[in-house]
Amino acid sequence: FTLLGIDSPSIETFSTLALQMATKVNMHYIPDDISVLDAFFELHEAQVRSLPVISSETGKVITNFSESYLREITIDNIYDVQLMEVMEFIQVFDLYTEPITVIPSATIATVIHTLADQRVHH
Q1: Lower Cβ count inside 10 Å, N or C end of the chain?
Q2: 93: which residues sit within 8 A by CB, 6+ positions away?
Q3: What is the CA radius of gyration of the chain?
Q4: 54-29-73 Cα angle (round to 5)
Q5: Helix boundaries (H) for the chain
Q6: Could you give the C-alpha distances from 12 to 8, 21, 48, 79, in angstroms and in order?
Q7: β-strand 30-31 against 50-54: which pairing, if any?
Q8: Coil, helix or strand at residue 53
Q9: Strands 6-7 and 2-3, how do they pair?
């Protein structure tokens, strides 16, 4: 078969091309050092209900940021909260959850079992 103009590509060529295509995808995430207000804006822009929070130091997933966190913002704390950095907000309101990840080569069955075992509902 032909893949992107390459006749009978090897598995190495296929893997390299797949990686190159994946890195060009516009991935949405929330840096750990942006404001809570910017984080909610990022959710809105991405049109999703939650996004991973990524460490600005390591590039790794730290936790997740959810639109449900809006419940923590009240008239009494809105001015203080909106400019807090994401991780400070998560710590102050005790919202930290351990990230659930799988390796890229995981099967769909493995992903489903992992989500079910961890009781992930979204």
Answers
A1: N
A2: 69, 72
A3: 19
A4: 90
A5: 11-23, 36-46, 78-81, 86-92, 108-117
A6: 11, 14, 34, 53
A7: parallel
A8: strand
A9: antiparallel
Nearest to 30 by CA among 55, 67, 47: 55
For the chain, 122 residues long, give each residue's pLDDT as a single digit of tens: 444 455 555 555 555 555 555 555 677 899 999 999 999 999 999 999 999 999 988 888 899 999 999 999 999 999 999 889 999 999 999 999 888 877 888 888 888 888 888 887 65
Instruction: Give this prediction's pTM.
Output: 0.69
The end-to-end CA distance of the chain, in Å, is: 38
User: Please, which residues have CB within 8 angstroms of residue 106's CB and are 6 or more apart in sequence?
Assistant: 114
Tokens 């460490």 belong to: 55
- Tell me which residue has tokens 């809006």: 70
